TrEMBL record:
Protein name in UniProt: Nucleic acid-binding protein
Domain of life of the organism encoding this protein: Bacteria
Record keywords: Plasmid
């Protein structure tokens, strides 16, 4: 993947909370209601080694879709 700012090839990196070992960022979505569970996906991090631009991408965005009943 190329950086949108300087056209350099981006590299993957890891990002965590710094609070506990093994922590990581993830995205979640949930339909309203206490009995509905969260739908989650991890986040992939890309960084440009030249300009420092960072891009975050959901690894499996389809996991976040809530299928509403009609």
């Amino acid at each position: 993947m190329k950086c949108i700012h300087c056209d350099t090839e981006m590299i993957t990196a890891n990002m965590d909370t710094g609070m506990t070992v093994g922590s990581y960022f993830y995205l979640w979505n949930k339909e309203k209601g206490i009995f509905n569970s969260r739908k989650t996906t991890t986040v992939k991090v890309y960084v440009c080694p030249d300009c420092g631009y960072i891009e975050l991408r959901a690894e499996k965005p389809e996991n976040l879709v809530i299928n509403k009943k009609s």
